[in-house]
Design brief:
This protein has 2 domains: 134 residues, Rossmann fold (3-Layer(aba) Sandwich); 157 residues, Rossmann fold (3-Layer(aba) Sandwich), CATH 3.40.50.1370. Helices cover 41% and strands 15% of the residues. It has 11 helices and 9 strands. By secondary structure, it is of the alpha/beta class. The radius of gyration is 19 Å and the shape is globular.
Length: 305
């Protein structure tokens, strides 16, 4: 049975992930074929946090699938004036065919899914970013082939929602995922424990370390901004702590010679990555950004079609 929601890929079986990735490839190859896939349907898009890629990609995706996207900021909703998440989910379920939410807390996503009668898609939360890593894996498959089992992905940087979601999808698909970052900024221990349990079931390897040498031989090198939206860094302490973990050409040379570089964007050249890496021949960040459109179309067709 297909899942009803996409709150986190922890709740999806590997076959669900593979089916969506297969569909994403088909959607990208023949965009016209799916012009009526969601004809007459509507998607409520809740944004507690603004975004370029999430808003534009979901909006265009719904248009190109024949549906109607509806943008909702907290200023547009009673949710920002004290209405419960449960009531919001129940009311929206009477109007729309799906809900996408980009929120501060994972609990908001979980509550929406608990009370909604329509599919809920996590556009980003503090713990997970499943749509982004589906696009990442679509990009990896385009470069290395459909079977990603045994590939080594090294994530360098803050142990945030991207780190968590890359570990999850890697564990489900039989990959080796190494999360590298400074002590005090490693991924959530509870998430790591759960993902390592999942990894054993699928012959995957999940590692967490502060040793940058563990990028050696990686097929995919990924980073993310060191400062998430809304964070502050008094005195520049966090920047100084992360400086040794900047992705440079030297770091890329430690990876496999055919390694690709990914970043979910927006990036800060000269901070988490140098310009020569993100703008260089190994970078696939703009293919990755485009694949948000195709991967999210696949998710919506899969859940709402």
């Amino acid at each position: 049975m297909k899942p009803k929601h996409l709150t986190t890929l922890l709740l999806w079986e590997p076959r669900h992930i593979r089916e969506v990735l297969d569909l994403a490839r088909k959607v990208k190859k023949d965009r016209d074929k799916y012009r009526k896939a969601l004809k007459g349907q509507s998607l409520a898009m809740i944004f507690e946090k603004p975004s370029t890629r999430t808003r534009v990609s979901f909006t265009v995706a719904m248009w190109e699938l024949g549906g109607q996207p509806i943008y909702l900021s907290t200023l547009d909703m009673q949710l920002g004036r004290g209405e419960t998440i449960g009531d919001t989910a129940k009311v929206l379920s009477r109007y729309v065919h799906g809900i996408m939410a980009r929120t501060f807390k994972q609990s908001t996503i979980d509550d929406l899914a608990q009370f909604a009668a329509v599919p809920v898609i996590n556009g980003l939360s503090d713990l997970y970013h499943p749509c982004q890593v589906l696009a990442d894996l679509q990009t990896v498959q385009e470069r290395f082939g459909k079977n990603v089992e045994g590939l080594h992905l090294a994530y360098i940087g803050d142990g945030n929602n991207m780190a968590h979601s890359l570990m999850i999808i890697g564990a489900k698909l039989g990959m080796k995922v190494t999360c590298i970052g400074p002590k005090g900024f490693l991924p959530n221990p509870g998430v790591v424990k759960e993902v390592q349990r999942v990894a054993k079931q699928h012959k995957a390897v999940i590692e967490v370390t502060s040793d940058l040498e563990q990028v050696k031989g990686a097929n995919v090198v990924v980073t993310d901004t060191w400062m998430s939206m809304g964070q502050s860094d008094p005195g520049g302490t966090k920047m100084k702590t992360f400086k040794p973990y900047q992705v440079t050409q030297e770091v890329m040379r430690r990876a496999d010679k055919d390694a690709i570089f990914l970043h979910c964007l927006p990036c800060h050249r000269g901070e988490e990555v140098t310009g020569e890496v993100i703008d260089g021949p190994q970078s696939a960040v703009f293919d990755e950004a485009e694949n948000r459109l195709h991967a999210q179309k696949a998710v919506m067709i899969y859940l709402m079609g």
